[in-house]
Fold these 3 entries.
Entry 1:
Amino acid sequence: MTKSAKTATAAEPSGDGTAVRSLPLWRNLQFQTLWIGTSASTLGVSVTDFTYPLTVLAVSGSPALAGLFAAVQAIGMLLAGLPAGMLADRSDSRTIVIWTEAGRAAVTAVVAVALITGWLSLPVLFTAAALLGIGQAVKGAAQTLLLRSVVPTEQLTQALTQDEVRMNGAALAGPALGGALYAVRALAHAVPFVFTAGCFLAALAGAALMKFVPGASQGPADQATNRTSNASSEGGGAAGSMLAGVRTLWGQPVLRAATLLIMFVNTIGAGFELIIIVILRHQAVPASAIGLALGLGAAGGLAGAPLVKVLHRLRPGVLLLAMCVLDAGILALLAVPFGPWWVAGLTFTVMLGLPAVRVLVDILVIRQAPPEQRGRVVAALMTLIGLGMPAGVAGCGLLLQYLPAQAAMLTLASAQAAAVAYCSTRRELRQACWPGQA
């Protein structure tokens, strides 16, 4: 198991061959500035992830179209995934983040204006979904490299654990805040979208400010220069191609098996929140209470961040399989119509292990990639595990269109149990070890 440095005091070589000492993470202003800006962006996404389905339902009255909206967004992410990885490896990550946040703010502002003026339509919403999906893919690869450019290697697990607070904190606050903002009738329910556009601008400002604050021993511009140099030296061979990341993942049995398992789970669970929203709406639960229940459930991710080190005592494949089995059981239990607090408790339980799984993926996959290919490996991982998401969210919408919501949830639970049973037969996954262990 890799070590998580609590205070980084190990000496690292600087560019001129002298030794420099890494700052403690809490004093690394570049990382903390990036973290604050990214937290704002993640919160905004969490708010609109909750309010977009409500908006599509209000415009069309169709759960299938609400699922199609998420499918279009996922398709945008998939189409942009591999090119985004190549771009991240060969360009300045900070600049990419700035431009993508500006684009996402503009798209969200257009949706808000369309709501206020009364000309919001399904074509506008689906166009926004595609553009937001593309932006998410481009930003995701660049942000992963940007984090590594301001955090020394020995602090990376600690930084990723703090990053879990960002993601799970946003998942906790976002649905509840989205429900409360959507309930505001002023501006024709556009308040959540105005809020999210502001969050994207805050993230843009955070990325821009990184240039002017002290931080890690090597800044993002230096890292970008190194990546560009490495990419140029690769030439036109396979290592320099857009598919280099896919080859890296698919060429190693453990990574291939883990990627397939996560792909199955992502496909089946892609419409998870949509089904919960429909189930609770059928129980006459108001939007604000639905958002609160989903948000409280996400608190499990916050509670699970301190468990990363404990859970990593398990073999990585065993941990991944165990979490997927738990997830299938939770899906089945969610079909029982016990109201929003039942949903919150079950979601809290399954979210406890999510931080450990995310850090596991980073340790097994991203850290093992060659630095000059890391952007493409990140993009390949995001693309492969997201391949089934469009079908997953569209399928959930169709299930809700023709089946009771409880039956749809039991269908998902059965499909996930079958997928986990298949992947558990892969010996290489069950016996996988952490890097550096025999």
Entry 2:
Amino acid sequence: MASDVEDRELVARAAAGDESSFRAIVERHEQAVARAVTAMLGPGDDADDVGQETFVRLFGALPRFRGEAELRTYLTRIAVNLSCDALERRRRRTGWLTIGGTDDDPPIAAPDEGEALEMEERKNAVRRAVDALDAKHKAVVVLRMLEERPTREVA
């Protein structure tokens, strides 16, 4: 795959100290990292911090990156691990896990009020079910169902 080869070249140059190559890596993969982190933590400061820390960790690991997995997969794994840590800290702090949004989010637009209410109730039920999962199982749901990553990669 051309993008995988290009990623390997960027990693090699960034590991050798080329700042523009590292910047290119960040620009290329920041959306995937943001999606994974926001799916795990919801939007906010925690998600922003974990997204930044993901790239800080990558920078420190560049000399050891062997390329056995795609760079996007590697970054997503770092992001999910850091998100799990943030969820655990949140759980200890508040006694509860939350993901993406709140019950105060406006209902999803629907043709009629009854359908909108039903869709909102379903969305809240799914959110509560995912919130009730421990961090490792939540990561599986996020990676497989929300990020649509292949089962082998999620494993």
Entry 3:
Amino acid sequence: MEQLGEDEKAQEFYKDFFAYTNQNQSLYRDLNYAAYYATIGDIEKAIAHLKPFTLAEGYQYWLVIFLDQDPILNRMSHHPDYAPTIKLIRDNFWLRHKKLHRSLEEDGVI
């Protein structure tokens, strides 16, 4: 809406998304806060919420694939903690994936 010059309507959407995020108890809550704060330009708060997501488990594979391509999260890309945090999210995902794969092999499932 901002790109269309509808700043008031954009602010309404931001307010609604923030209210949704406050109620959200999913593992994506910090990621949603990071996106919200990146959108409104508060990069420090955005990074502060992105960092706890490095400890999250059980998120979708597609998230890892597209995380660094998200235009909203890329608003943080100039911050010195952004690239290392994205890398840690990705590395932790693949580490858990390898452990799960190994466990499934040991159990004869695959």
